[in-house]
Write a structure and sequence with these properties.
- The protein has 473 residues and is an alpha/beta fold.
- The chain folds into 3 domains: 54 residues, no CATH class; 93 residues, Threonyl-tRNA Synthetase, Chain A, domain 2 (2-Layer Sandwich), CATH 3.30.980; 251 residues, 3-Layer(aba) Sandwich (Rossmann fold), CATH 3.40.50.300.
- It has 13 helices and 16 strands.
- It has a 10-stranded mixed sheet with strand order 8-7-16-15-14-9-13-12-10-11, covered by helices on one side. A 4-stranded antiparallel sheet has the order 3-4-6-5. Strands 1-2 form a two-stranded antiparallel sheet.
- Strand 5 and strand 6 form a beta hairpin.
- The longest helix has 33 residues.
- Bound molecules: adenosine-5'-triphosphate.
- The site of adenosine-5'-triphosphate has 15 residues, from helix 7.
- This is FtsK/SpoIIIE domain-containing protein.
Length: 473
């Protein structure tokens, strides 16, 4: 009787031997071969149609020569291949940008989809814990499409039903290493669909020299560097307050100086004023003539801030009931109060009375100054709790290189690091990482990576000389 085992129906089985293994074999329903073949062929055809639809150029590059070889022989195929190559090659050599936009990135996307993402998708999803096994079935997030830009692969993916963005944000390191990238950023494109950004190279690895002095008179948004996607980084300074936080040597100076540089034409014409607070006596003193008002000692800084508050309040009285938005004019210029190392004046200030005066003046400026044309741009080394009160007064924040991962969310807000703002991973080698930062733009919760242009001492000297010449003229 036991020879029939395992698997046969063994109802009523009686055995006197303890520990006898009784195995039940599940009923097997045999699917007719024709149904299996139809399903298989259907899947192949659907896959082919999808591939042609999504990657027409890559498919044509492979399919046309193969078809011509088969139909007419390899000589004709060679000719057919040579004709487009003789057009495409010069195009690629002499106008790389348009070639890439039309053909290059599409071919690369096809290659990256097949070679990197499809090949490793199942394994990475399973090992990172993003795939699920339930009721005997594997549920794997759906890889929708891959697009390539000059610096990154943009992978669109459908989450599994019931998954949250945080499930993915918590696994950015698994994803990055799984797909051979140094980092990964997660953003939501629509309900249930994510865009994963895998950089292939770092477009911000090389320092950016100081940008040319703008020709137009403008108070912003001012161009101060480049974004990772190659577009200019424009920072809003009029109508907001900006805090740039970064460890020592992170390049806070390059942000302050790039903003100053971009505002120089507005300062020349009198529609903007720069007020400098330089408690470290190192950063702003170099370009002292550019500042309408300048202070270094804490007592002078307190006086200067009090004066700014007084002027702001007078202007608010003048505007009351007349206008709600500030338009910079020579009569009512935009005043940008620039503070290098704001914690020197607040958290680290030993004179209590002075500390309270400065904190109160800064709080008044940052809470009431926006609408009447007073802005504060402050640099800060340590964004931790003792300077928290100051931090929260600034609507716009920039995270340069930070020492600890927890500091990223302190600067950019909750969840910023999970979404890829790895400010604690920015290189401490000045050449590679100084001036590199993460910012959150108003329109999107997703942080973007940027690099400020480096305004050298020579650039500042030139700016001062030019400024003085212009004033003398
Ligand atoms: N945008 C930049 N691109 C390239 N190199 C830069 C950039 N900004 C700064 N550096 C380099 O990094 C060094 C440190 O920069 P900087 O003094 O601005 O840092 P910091 O954040 O102000 O430091 P600290 O808080 O100690 O004053 C500079 O001497 C310069 O060589």
């Amino acid at each position: 009787m036991f020879k029939k085992l395992p698997g046969d129906q063994v109802t009523g089985l009686v055995t006197t031997t303890p520990d006898t293994a009784v195995v039940f074999r599940p009923a097997v329903v045999r699917t007719p071969a024709i149904i299996t073949i139809v399903i298989f062929v259907w899947r192949v055809l659907a896959g082919l149609v999808r591939m042609v639809w999504r990657h027409p150029i890559a498919t044509a590059v492979l399919a046309i020569p193969a078809a011509v070889t088969w139909l007419y022989g390899w000589r004709v195929a060679l000719l057919v291949v040579w004709l487009p190559v003789s057009v495409l090659l010069p195009w690629a050599l002499f106008d790389r940008a348009t070639f890439n936009a039309w053909i290059g990135w599409r071919l690369l996307a096809f290659w990256r989809l097949a070679w990197m993402y499809r090949r490793h998708w199942h394994a990475v999803m399973t090992i990172s814990g993003l795939a699920r096994h339930a009721g005997g079935r594997d549920y794997v997030p759906h890889l929708v499409a891959v697009r390539c830009t000059s610096w990154a692969d943009l992978v669109t993916v459908n989450m599994l039903t019931g998954q949250a963005v945080k499930d993915w944000a918590d696994r950015i390191e698994h994803l990055a290493h799984g797909f051979g990238a140094t980092s990964c950023r997660v953003s939501v494109t629509r309900a249930g669909r994510l865009l994963l950004t895998f950089p292939r190279r770092d477009p911000l690895a090389v320092p950016l020299p100081a940008l040319p002095l703008p020709e137009a008179v403008s108070v912003g948004p001012v161009e101060i560097g480049i974004r990772e996607d190659g577009r200019p980084w424009r920072l809003k300074v009029h109508g907001t307050h900006v805090l740039a936080a970064g460890a020592t040597g992170a390049g806070k100076g390059s942000i302050l100086w790039s903003v100053i540089r971009a505002l120089i034409p507005a300062v020349w014409t009198g529609v903007a004023e720069l007020w400098g607070l330089d408690p470290k006596l190192m950063e702003l003193s170099f370009g002292r003539p550019l500042f309408t008002r300048y202070a270094a000692s804490p007592a002078d800084c307190a006086d200067l801030l009090d004066e700014a508050v007084e002027r702001m309040q007078k202007r608010a009285e003048k505007f009351a009931g007349v206008q709600r938005d500030h338009v910079p004019t020579v009569e009512d210029p935009f005043v940008l109060v620039i503070v290098d190392e704001v914690a020197f004046l607040t958290a680290y200030q030993s004179d209590r009375a002075l500390k309270q005066r400065i904190s109160a003046a800064l709080a008044t400026l940052t809470t009431q100054g926006r609408a009447v044309g007073f802005g504060v741009l402050a640099a800060l080394q340590d964004p931790r709790k003792d300077v928290l009160t100051i931090r929260n007064l600034f609507p716009d924040k920039i995270a340069l290189r930070l020492d600890e991962s927890e500091q990223v969310d302190m600067v950019l807000g909750d969840g910023a690091r999970d979404r890829g703002a790895l400010a604690d991973h920015i290189s401490s080698v000045p050449q590679e990482g100084a001036g590199v930062a993460y910012v959150r733009l108003e329109a999107s919760p997703d942080p973007i990576r940027v690099r400020a242009a480096y305004v050298s001492d020579a650039d500042i000297r030139d700016m001062v000389a030019l400024f003085q010449m212009e004033e003398a003229a």
